[in-house]
Amino acid sequence: MTGGGNLGRVAVMFGGNSAEREVSLKSGSAVLAALRRAGVDAYPFDPAERPLSALKEEEFDRVFIALHGRGGEDGSLQGALDLMGIPYTGSGVLASALAMDKWRSKLLWQAVGIPVPDCMVLTAESDWNAVAERLGLPLFVKPANEGSSIGITKVKSAFELRAAYEAAVKYDTLVIAERFLAGGEYTVGVLGRDSHMQALPVIRIVPATEFYDYEAKYFRDDTRYLIPSGLSAAQEQEARQLALDAFAALGGRGWGRVDVLLDGAGKAYCLEANMSPGMTDHSLVPMAAKAAGLSFEQLVVKVLEMASHG
Fold this sequence. Notes:
The protein has 310 residues and is α+β, with helices and mostly antiparallel strands. It folds into three domains: 4-90, 3-Layer(aba) Sandwich (Rossmann fold), CATH 3.40.50.20; 97-116 and 181-305, D-amino Acid Aminotransferase, Chain A, domain 1, CATH 3.30.470; 119-179, 2-Layer Sandwich (Dna Ligase, domain 1). It has eleven helices and 13 strands. The strands form three sheets. Strands 8, 9, 10, 11, 12 and 13 form a six-stranded antiparallel β-sheet that branches. The protein has a four-stranded antiparallel β-sheet with strand order 4-7-5-6. Helix 1 (21-37) packs across helix 11 (296-305). The longest helix is centred in the C-terminal third of the chain and has 18 residues, at 233-250. It starts with 8 loop residues before the first strand and ends in a 5-residue tail after the last helix.
């Protein structure tokens, strides 16, 4: 691993204006502290408070993106950094934009043969009974371009669908309904580039709440994270390979996380990908990296070493 002092002047970008600002502030603070402990010349940078042009003016050599949600992991920031010629962590414009859009990422995965839960786009004119009949109950309704489970509702009757749609459409004009799979929720961290891409150990997520919602992700202490995941060796390998395939299909690079669901028969389905995963004390990629023998400091330096642009 390269020494932290060889990585230049680094801006840790966190905060921003998305609905996930609060989580991003926690992630970025943790990353900044870890990089400094590793000897990296790192500084905080909140794009909600400073213009991006300051990156050039202050001669930053790299950017560690710890922004979540729109404006941070949807390709727009990545495009700006590409134009400025400043290397940054994680995926580029296209992969970031695709991963942020849960509808279009599913369409791409389906096209290359990666299994996804059945889903459909909702509008204010949708036939709610027909939606429930096609996808079954319960089902999930969510904004297509939000993260951290913001705007998501678990729907148990067709009568609840309209209210769920109205809750989701506050965050995004594109709203999807998705089949519920009852075999458990898992997540797989991905780390590396090209032929060196590796899948970290699978984590099983067992929330105490109705589902793995915003509170369960970031604030509750009764959400259980199981490593080892409890899957058989074959299932563990299937989930890890599915995550690698899904990440590669989007064009992902550097690091990310792919969420996987199992159905009642134990078959794995790809739910969504996250190109700027959380780095808080509740976060999953650091947890998986630790199980693989990487400390938090080693993880953030490794991610930073892979910074690139274009």
